[in-house]
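task queued by scheduler; priority normal; single chain, no ligands, no partner chains; default sampling; output format set to structure tokens
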Amino acid sequence: MTTKKLFVLDTNVLLHDPQSLFRFDEHDIYIPLITLEEMDAHKVGMTDVARNARQASRYIDELFSKEPDSLTSGIPLNLAGHKEARGKLILQTSVETASLPDSLLGEKADNLILGLVKYLQQQKNGYEHVALVSKDINIRIKARALGLHAEDYFNDKVLEDSDVLYTGYRQLDGEFWLRNGSELQSWQEQGSVFYRIQGDDALQMLPNELLLDEDGEKTLQARVREVNRADKVAILQTVKDYTHPKNSVFGITARNWGQNYALNLLMDPEIDLVTLLGQAGTGKTLLTLASALTQVLDQQRYSEIIMTRVTVPLGNDIGFLPGTEEEKMNPWMGALEDNLEVLTHSDDMGGDWARAATHDMVASKIKIKSINFMRGRTFQHKFLIIDEAQNLTSKQMKTMITRAGEGTKIVCMGNLAQIDTPYLSEGSSGLTYLVDRFKNWPHFGHITMQHGERSRLAAHAVAVL
């Protein structure tokens, strides 16, 4: 009995990922004519959706130009060089449909696709089953109500459950030091204590992971500096204490262990990429700006700060925004202004004029850029901040990270519970993709911040709303 399946692709799958044509292994792909029609309507413009529509059309055209007589029988997907695709691409060439309930009649694209899927499922044609693949939850619900197979497009999902995403820290159990005491070595160097452990525990650790050992009021925070899996050896280093005023960063001190470790990662020149996850009010933007300003103004490690974010509105769009690129981005950068007020506020006798001058001097080192114009650019010796990074797709995230030139540090901040981009989920967000793919790289650091410090009102709102 054959185990081959036929997948009917909805338009939004191709608009989301043109490579989806080659992601179904040995199974066959069916493209309805209405899908091609909808793609044609989306192909104009410079948005990612338009680019994806054009790319998907090029893939389909390339395949059928190799064997133009295989429209109905199907053309092998590996003719375009994708060896992992062992199925065929079949294009609808005639009006094929099955009867639907009266409530679903009409020329609506979703209903036409549902009628086609029902027809193909009735015909079978040797397939184990026929399934509709769509990013649209409503058409999937309607398909299941009609007794049809329907599923989401899962290939772009890094994780099925965001709860298993790498957090950047690990709580040590009470037996950790007993298990590793016999082979333990320790020494002091440059104000830090180093530990060398050997055993199975070392195999579970990742570079730059935070290890927490809480004993009453005392908490040991150690950072994994090196991991040698062949010898089961890990080198740990106690982290710098940024909760103490003497180690303040642009006047900011950490209020909890999550903020303390975030500052350790942000201030380390050996860490090229930092990701900060956390709910609203955990201090992601404030800590990042404070560390960026210190390294630009005081240490002169970077020449300037570049800040950007995806412009996805929370509610209805307010329409056309006049001005230059930076002026158009200003309404999206309210968080920047809010945090700059905190960083430039001073209780000394300088007065309003001194505060305004400090604010202007700090702001002059920060450039606000639109993510829409990043393709092709290279940033040298810059501190690049990507805010609301959970709204980036994996493709957009790759575009942003590959902008880094020599001496550039990139910080991505976000909250996976606040995704506004259509068809993105916690499992398929570009931020999730980034954390999962980079967690083994020694120049990457990540921390999921747990404690909100904005206000008691904000903390309670996060807990109960």
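post-processing summary
- Residues 20 and 252 are 46 Å apart (CA to CA).
- The chain has three domains: 6-151, 162-237, 251-464.
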